């Protein structure tokens, strides 16, 4: 059954309302500052807001796929181009965000780029929430198999190590274990590959050639290529959009145009063309359209403040948790919940309401994980890097 585009509008509205309500419970110092023109607390505010909407779009994408799975037993792309692109275009834009933020940092730092600090920041940023997701996946997989050991203990340990290293093998004989996270973890190896390759790519744009980080980078990149073995060039080209944007925002004339009404129209045209004109986001032409949209956002185009209002910025704050944990919430609240499945049955309207309620849970769970785990880990990483910088400064002779 094809769902109306109005369902997506409804679900986005529910998410923003849920975010607004949760913000009333968040201590004021931890709330994002709304209305920033280009940057918010040293970050690109429009990009932060966009990330929140992208993560929730992936939730909607997987919610529609889950409806199909409940009625066909197949986990496949939706027949609707819109609901397919809500997932694929969002992930493509996530890759552009990653490339932009770190290429921008590289252009600013030049040969002074702190590579150990970069690695440390990525560990503190990526792994704590991922570890929570892996723990929940393991528990839910064991629960789905009746907490009865169906493989050898050694095999179970090997599968858990696979999950801990960003693979998604079956756990305890549950072949569709990856579905517990809606298979969303497939994108993380691409992020890791970009992180690994960045010091080697830095020799292209920095005047000083730092040999040791470049050699370590090449080795790490080769190890990842051999370990995962299934990277797609069509997906990797999405990172080029973020790199191009990092150079584009250094042209004042282009930034002024991107923030103008005409820039807004061009950005929307690029996004619309990519989403409505192609069956996949992972091809040169849709990546070009998404890239035009992303350049405008990176330049500070907030779409009349839509990307920089406080509830949307909060969705951006919790976007990583929304992305990683939404599949777990869908699995728990719908897929593995027999009473809900029985209640919904063939009624698409009831399923839409169930999905809206699940979306509220996603925002609530991601907010809790952000406040309890993600944000403390990020702050701990910052303190550690500050201590190392101070230590190095003390060792430098006057």
From TrEMBL:
GO terms for biological process: polysaccharide biosynthetic process. InterPro entries: Acyl_transf_3_dom, Acyltransferase_3. Keywords: Acyltransferase, Membrane, Transferase, Transmembrane, Transmembrane helix. It holds the Pfam family Acyl_transf_3. This is Acyltransferase. The keyword Transmembrane applies. The chain crosses the membrane at residues 6-23, 53-70, 82-103, 124-147, 180-204, 211-228, 281-300, 312-336, 348-373. PANTHER family: ACETYLTRANSFERASE, BLR2367 PROTEIN. Residues 45-364 form the Acyltransferase domain. It comes from the Bacteria. GO terms for cellular component: membrane. GO terms for molecular function: acyltransferase activity, transferring groups other than amino-acyl groups.
């Amino acid at each position: 059954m094809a769902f109306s585009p109005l369902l997506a509008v409804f679900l986005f509205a529910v998410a923003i309302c849920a975010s607004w309500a949760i913000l009333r419970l968040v201590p004021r110092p931890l709330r994002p500052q709304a209305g920033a023109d280009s940057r918010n607390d040293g970050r690109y505010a429009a990009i932060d807001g966009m990330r929140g909407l992208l993560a929730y779009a992936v939730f909607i994408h997987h919610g529609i796929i889950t409806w199909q799975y409940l009625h066909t037993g197949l986990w496949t792309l939706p027949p609707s181009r819109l609901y397919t692109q809500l997932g694929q275009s969002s992930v493509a834009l996530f890759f552009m965000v990653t490339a932009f933020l770190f290429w921008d940092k590289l252009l600013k730092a030049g040969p002074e780029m702190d590579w150990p600090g970069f690695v440390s920041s990525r560990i503190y940023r990526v792994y704590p929430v991922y570890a929570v997701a892996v723990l929940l996946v393991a528990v839910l997989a064991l629960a789905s198999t009746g907490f009865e050991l169906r493989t050898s203990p050694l095999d179970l340990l090997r599968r858990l190590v696979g999950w801990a290293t960003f693979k998604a093998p079956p756990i305890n004989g549950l072949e569709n274990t990856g579905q517990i996270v809606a298979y969303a973890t497939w994108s993380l190896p691409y992020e890791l590959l970009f992180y690994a390759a960045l010091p080697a790519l830095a020799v292209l744009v920095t005047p000083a050639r730092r040999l040791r980080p470049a050699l370590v980078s090449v080795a790490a990149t080769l190890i990842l290529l051999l370990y995962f073995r299934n990277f797609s060039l069509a997906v990797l080209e999405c990172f080029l959009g973020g790199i191009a944007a990092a150079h584009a925002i250094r042209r004042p004339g282009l930034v002024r145009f991107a923030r103008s009404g005409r820039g807004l129209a061009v950005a929307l045209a690029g996004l619309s063309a990519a989403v409505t004109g192609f069956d996949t986001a992972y091809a040169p032409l849709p990546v070009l359209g998404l890239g035009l949209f992303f350049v405008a956002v990176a330049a500070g185009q907030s779409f009349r403040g839509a990307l920089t209002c406080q509830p949307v910025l909060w969705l951006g704050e919790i976007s990583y948790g929304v992305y990683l944990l939404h599949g777990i919430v869908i699995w728990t609240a719908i897929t593995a919940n027999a009473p809900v499945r029985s209640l919904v049955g063939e009624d698409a309207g009831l399923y839409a309401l169930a999905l809206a309620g699940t979306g509220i849970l996603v925002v609530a769970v991601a907010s809790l994980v952000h406040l309890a785990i993600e944000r403390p880990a990020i702050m701990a990483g910052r303190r550690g890097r500050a201590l190392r910088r101070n230590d190095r400064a003390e060792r430098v002779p006057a």
